[in-house]
Amino acid sequence: MDVFNFDKKGYYGQYGGAFIPEVLKTTIDELTAWFEKAKADPSFWVAYVDLLHEYCGRPTPVTHLQNLSHKIGGAQIYVKREDLNHTGAHKANNVMGQGLLVKRMGKTRVIAETGAGQHGVATATMAARFGFDCTIYMGDVDVHRQRPNVFWMEQLGATVVPVKTGQQTLKDAISDALRDWAHSMDTTHYVMGTVCGPHPFPEMVSYFQSIIGLEALPTIKRMAGKLPDRVYACVGGGSNAMGVFQGFLDYDSVELIGVEAGGSGMGIGQHAARLAKGTTASAGVAQGYKTAFLQDDEGQMLETKSVAAGLDYIGVSPILAHLAEIGRVRFEAATDTEVVEALKMVMQYEGIIPALESAHAFVQGLKEAADMKKDEVILINQSGRGDKDIFTVAEAIGDPAWDQFLREKAGVKDA
Ligand SMILES: *Cc1c(COP(=O)(O)O)cnc(C)c1O
Question: Which CATH architecture has domain 18-53+90-202?
């Protein structure tokens, strides 16, 4: 199934497109042309795979969760380990690929927006490695919330610009980054972090992330002796999901399941589920593309909520919106409470600490594995590692020793 081969380039059914200001048209067209040329040149993909091998530690392994499979007593549970990728998540695949493209284009500067800071750190890492100048736009509220990531971006050589307009969060950072790009496009590339935004970004980021599925397919076949019956991935923008799903799209026997942030419930403003059952999201155009957005009747964007910052977004990949509409990908939502429970199980039975985002995929996978047969196989894409979530998880678990540690650090004396 070639989802990129529609009549109208950059559209996936009714979704996608490139709704951009006139000044960016030449740059976007130029980027599309460079991407098409790179894709048609086999040496580009070879250089990409070599770079990820040498610098990021790819290929990442697949792990059979024998203890949990036994404990749950249903399907055999396998995990694709993107947490073992350099910088601790799948994000490095995309930024390193775009870095190679920037080099081909002869540009010398990269910019990006970041919410939680993970994409900012990945982009700053890539820029350091390639020797590019790097500016990261981040809402002022997020700059304060994500101090450790700001620190690392700066140490890696990036300039972090706090955005003080609007609500001072991700969507305001996007506006400022676009404004920068409109003035600097001769030298500068905008590094999109996920499979969203105007064409060619959804296709380009999917192309780089497809390495996850390309690796996973032969590995799970060898280990399990068959194709997986179901493949699970968490969905923020949708890049790790598109990455792993692309390995299995052609196999009708493999069911693909995207898991969104169910937050504290399906009420308005309580979650970030755009495609799962019960969502009120509807088709609209914003931020350069058409997809299912969490918006009200007037097209005002709604509040979103999730324990996992990486899933907390109003839009979703136009490719996934289409795959949901034609029934190829099933969407579910996992609540914050379920996520913390799944995280505890994976830590305690397997010695693996998934990112809070990835734990959403585990929730659905573990739930469904219980009702499946022992000779059935599921594959969960673990998009990243959980080290970054230590404060959030400790608070959610309510560990008293941790509270004590924080009080001591802050110099607060016990009453
Ligand atoms: C950013 C992030 C996500 C969400 O992004 P997608 O584009 O939906 O993959 C998921 N997991 C981790 C660990 C992340 O850092």
Answer: 3-Layer(aba) Sandwich (3.40)
